[in-house]
Amino acid sequence: MCGIVGYIGENCASPVLLDGLKKLEYRGYDSAGLAVVENGEVQVVKTKGRVADLEQKLQESKPLSGTVGIGHTRWATHGAPTDANAHPHTGGNGMVTLVHNGIIENYIALKSMLETAGYTFVSETDTEVLAQLFAYYYKGDAVAAMRKVMQTVRGSYAVAVLTKDCPDRILAAKKDSPLIVGKGEGENFLASDIPAVLKYTRDCYLLNDGEIAVLEKDRILFFDSTGAPLQKEIYRVTWDAESAQKGGYKHFMKKEIAEQPKAVRDTLSPRIVNGKVELPELHLTDGEIRAVGKIHIVACGSAWHVGMAAKYILESLAGIPCETDLASEFRYRDPIVREGDICIVISQSGETADTLAALREAKRKGAHTVSIVNVVASTIARESDDVIYTMAGPEIAVATTKAFSAQLAVVYLLGLYFARAVGRLTEAEEQAKCASLLELPAQIEELLKLDEEMAKLARQFSAAKNVFFIGRGLDYAISLEGSLKLKEISYIHSEAYAAGELKHGTISLIEPGTPVVAIATQEALFEKTLGNIKEVRARGARVIALVSGEHKEVSEFADEVIHIPQADATVTPSLDVIPLQLFAYYMALERGCDVDKPRNLAKSVTVE
Ligand code: F6R
């Protein structure tokens, strides 16, 4: 995710900013920049690429000696990673210079309002809109302008602002995106993450949503959202730099599991407007959607599991035939793809070799290609006709969690969008489905509270040699993911089966004590899956059952029952996956495995 740093003091700002940006590199980024106040003027230097490229550019330009500045590493969301889209951005003809993390959901409407008011834009970013909006409201009182901005924008943000007329001050504010202030002696710091300031100070203030900070060399002022002054307590950092990078979590995987409510919210909420799905990224008319013969869905690994869920979801909502393929199979089996078909490719990295080849194959045969990708301007994103970005932020742990959940969120949006286009969804139905989608982040938050329970289960089951996951329909798709998560990080052999298929061979592997994770959250199929639970239990399996709602009868046949909040049947995969991720995580921990970097695996698989 993007990183913010700020410095105000007596030392040269640019080395401090560069040092802070290097400490934030682990968050993932694709461009970097900084702004330093030089003799009353704000100088901006920025570039696509690494912090090392920024350093090089600084060496080649006039040396910066100013003692006040802000810096940024950008992870592209709106617009490709280019020099122009890199932060800082300026507003009001250079009066305002600003860096931003997060997503401004209503930036299109704000941009058009500002354009009408005579403001011009040089980048594709939502951040430049923020900079111009600040300039629009700025009449000499920076806190008042910031409050106006905060009242006007929708979305998430952490921002740091310099104004040319007041060069000895940095202004900062946040909502749903972290920001901390580091307190020094005759100098103060700002950062999106503690590691950036740890070399200089361990005394920090953690900004809360809606709060504004004003940093000067010798003092820091805080204001609440009404503009009233605030007294804040110092938070003394006792962690080391490495654990601080993980935001206090032991592993990136755990941090990313915890980030899922935000990833899902950021992916869904900008695309649900007044109870209606809006996908401006999709260049297909309703007529073209109605004429589609087949939707091909291709992906690898966990993204393929999203594709498996997508088949059930798109067919049941939109009634369009769907076929989900492993990209490595699709590319070589000479698939029957017809002119006018749609091919959806799903990839976190946007660089997976097989998925890219499958995309090219579908394109060559005349399909309209739509990719669901996390990394902006990656090859798959660039080569597909349309791209719908997941807003999960960079994923560092090899085993995907938050990108998986964000991909599922896009699939729900596509399902509703297609269903409306083909006339299978009334306005009222769409309103209701959108409302249930918007409840997902809070429900995921609730499920994260199962943490201790899943850790306890892992202590009981970590000696297992084989684990089976069973489910029907969407529960089968999520069984595949639960099984992969477990095996890839804990190295325990595990298989996922459509619950009705188990007795056609695999059930011979069930012996007394074999763990079976049974996912039974599809209400319409509950009785059937319960029957399969009874079958494995009769052969001595230790059953962990996931059920939606009460279902007291399950405890008679399951050793452990995990209750999933009741939700629209379509969206249960987003809920079921949370305890399964936690289970895999704790099983791996119990077995002393390297959770973030499992053996033999790479985050981006660019070879076939
Ligand atoms: C499993 C996992 C992999 C990826 C797969 C596809 O936890 O992360 O199975 O899902 O390698 O990668 P992307 O989504 O980058 O195409």
Report on this model:
- This protein is of the alpha/beta class.
- The protein is about 35% helix and about 25% strand.
- It contains 20 helices and 27 strands.
- The strands form 5 sheets. The chain has an 8-stranded antiparallel beta sheet, covered by helices on one side.
- Helix 12 links the parallel strand 20 (about 340-345) and strand 21.
- The longest helix has 20 residues, at about 400-420.
- It is globular and about 80 Å long.
- It starts with a strand and ends in an 18-residue tail after the last helix.
- The site of fructose -6-phosphate has 15 residues, from helix 10 and helix 18.
Low-confidence parts? none
User: Mean pLDDT, as a whole number?
Assistant: 94
Largest sheet: 8 strands, antiparallel
Radius of gyration: 25 Å
Total beta strands: 27
Overall geometric form? globular
How far apart the termini lie comes to 28 Å
Strand content: 15-25%
Backbone structural class: alpha/beta
Neighbour order of strands in the largest sheet = 3-2-4-1-10-9-11-15
Bound molecules: fructose -6-phosphate
Counted by DSSP, the helix tally is 20
State the helicity in percent bands: 25-40%
What is the assembly state of the chains in this entry?
Answer: single chain
